[in-house]
Amino acid sequence: xxxxxxxxxxxxxxxxxxxxxxxxxxxxxxxxxxxxxxxxxxxxxxxxxxxxxxxxxxxxxxxxxxxxxxxxxxxxxxxxxxxxxxxxxxxxxxxxxxxxxxxxxxxxxxxxxxxxxxxxxxxxxxxxxxxxxxxxxxxxxxxxxxxxxxxxxxxxxxxxxxxxxxxxxxxxxxxxxxxxxxxxxxxxxxxxxxxxxxxxxxxxxxxxxxxxxxxxxxxxxxxxxxxxxxxxxxxxxxxxxxxxxxxxxxxxxxxxxxxxxxxxxxxxxxxxxxxxxxxxxxxxxxxxxxxxxxxxxxxxxxxxxxxxxxxxxxxxxxxxxxxxxxxxxxxxxxxxxxxxxxxxxxxxxxxxxxxxxxxxxxxxx
Length: 365
Hints:
Structural class: alpha+beta
Helix content: 25-40%
Number of domains: 3
Number of helices: 10
CATH topology of the largest domain: D-amino Acid Aminotransferase, Chain A, domain 1
Mean pLDDT: 91
Order of helices and strands: EHEHEHHHEEEHEEEEHEHEEHH
CATH architecture of the largest domain: 2-Layer Sandwich
Radius of gyration: 20 Å
CATH class of the largest domain: Alpha Beta
Number of strands: 13
Shape: globular
């Protein structure tokens, strides 16, 4: 098959005076793109990279029309807008070109963390209590305050529409209303978007990746607001990865942007995570439910925190329908490796599941 690999390289991103230092930390490196293309070629496919920008000199639409791909391997993050991760898929749908991964609505939804949490809450899936701030001086919701007008529990402050833990640091944990307003003001200034403030769950942090698609006969009615008690058919789960937060004394037990970027080459983790089979099954059930209710396709990763003050109850932090694919340190790649998969098997596994979903026959060469 002829495959167009679509992504946004950090080195090609726009810059401007006063932008935050982590502005483009969720974009990809040439190393990742080269690895994906090589993996697809090893799978018998023709593969070529295209910078996912429509303006000159990149001219994505014209270049795709000339290349005539059978399918696009999409990991494009794009640059601007509330639903930026959905922009390239929307263009592909207009051009009637199949692509890997989740579709427009899911990508726009998952990028908006508060909206995703509302969907999870509606379906009875555990996610920390939260409030969204458009201004630093907004009043804190009464149910987050104690009788003295202070926070009932530590809160966690982060941008509502960013990836790679942008804006997440030890300072994100706040204990007083004054600290909360100060941190919200800082992040509003840096990221120019609503700020999500949620109950900080103190405990272990884990992530669970999966590839595949839920088969329609196994799907449950969306009006059923109870978490599932059996796994749907069609998903392949990788071993749970636990972040070894104890190895990062300066990061306050949080999986920070600094860990994901500056310390990525020296990432400390446990994979498979040291958990029981029963607990892993519980995480799989929750991850599958998130995959279903948010409409994910082909591949996704769900992040959890375990509440050490509540018998390690798992809370869903977010779902990532465009998980990183750096072969060296991306969470999904580490998990696949722990399952005995090569990088080539992972990349081609994602492609094969997309091809099957689109109803195409896999053709080598």
